[in-house]
Design a protein that fits this description.
By secondary structure, the protein is mainly alpha-helical. It is built from ten helices and no strands. α8 crosses α10.
């Protein structure tokens, strides 16, 4: 885990080849890019760009469909804060409907928030599960949580996720959150985190 953060820290210090190419394209040969919408050359700049692009062979329906696809991909990669909040609230509601009798709403909300944060991270499923619950279980070491998360991650890779979740829930002692042992709280938290990640996918 530490190695990952070191690698990601190093890579963020130096621009990648792709980032340098993008910067070069944005600046162009003449070095002009309309960073400000009040630039006097703005209209001319975009007019030149449009003339260099040909719509020939594209129907209006095809343009509309491809535009819709592009914007939905952009929204998925960079959702607005309002969309993020709506998605997180929807996830919290889903978790509450399913698990409110097993754990407090505050814990469910925290798991939903962490699940949203790690969902697109380049982490293994077991690492994502650990990240979802680590702050909720401060007495647990990361390695210990990994031991509990790995079987859960591997067991739920197939198509029978709901069945696997039910089996994992059955292994947790039934009872109110405050009365559960530390290990049952950890297991239950990981099951809920896995359920949240499955819903996000």
């Amino acid at each position: 885990m530490a190695n990952k953060s070191i690698r990601s820290g190093r890579s963020s210090m130096f621009p990648s080849h792709t980032e340098l190419e993008l910067l070069q394209l944005l600046l162009g040969d003449d070095g002009f890019y309309p960073w400000s919408l009040t630039e006097s050359e703005l209209e001319l700049y975009f007019s030149d760009l449009e003339q260099g692009f040909s719509w020939e062979g594209w129907s209006d329906d095809e343009v509309a469909a491809r535009s819709e696809s592009l914007f939905s991909q952009l929204d998925r990669l960079w959702p607005s804060s309002a969309a993020n909040q709506t998605l997180e609230e929807g996830l919290q509601e889903t978790l509450a409907q399913r698990f409110i009798n097993r754990m407090p709403q505050t814990v469910l909300s925290a798991i939903a928030q962490h699940a949203r944060q790690v969902f697109n991270a380049e982490l293994s499923l077991a690492d994502q599960l650990v990240e979802c619950v680590r702050e909720l279980l401060p007495a647990w070491g990361e390695e210990d949580l990994q031991v509990l998360a790995r079987p859960l991650a591997y067991a739920m890779r197939g198509t029978q996720k709901d069945e696997a979740i039910e089996q994992a829930l059955a292994s947790v002692h039934p009872g109110e959150w405050e009365q559960l042992s530390d290990i049952d709280r950890a297991r239950l938290s990981l099951v809920v985190a896995r359920y949240a990640l499955a819903k996000l996918s």
